Fold:
Amino acid sequence: MIDNPFAVIDRRINRLEALLIEIKDVLKTGQPHDQIGQTPFGDFHWLCEACSGIPVSTLRIKSAAGTIPGTKKVGKRVLYEKEVVINWLRGQAQRIQLSSAEIAQNAEDQIFNQLEKKSKNGKSNRPTKTGKVA
Structure:
């Protein structure tokens, strides 16, 4: 059976395209395509994968505000230094591990602050930090 001549041409074009992409990668980065994953910088897609538990919208807000360390702007692209971001994430995780007493104290402080804000808006029956109504 004779192969479809267009299928033969398509396979050859696909091989040429793959070779051109590999040549472009070598010229652009100085290393073959299979070693590109070892670069010290990642893009926003990499950041989303590294911070899988954080919503994408939160990452965009933090990136725009400049609160993510290791951010480098190259032209219009924003790159993230992988090692710095991973160390920052580890530091965030260590900060999250609080004892139950610290969690209770933080909750109490937040409730007090919210009640304080409401009292500034005109409500007078607010508890003090000791629990008594002022």
The chain has five helices and three strands. The beta strands are 41-42, 71-74, 77-81.
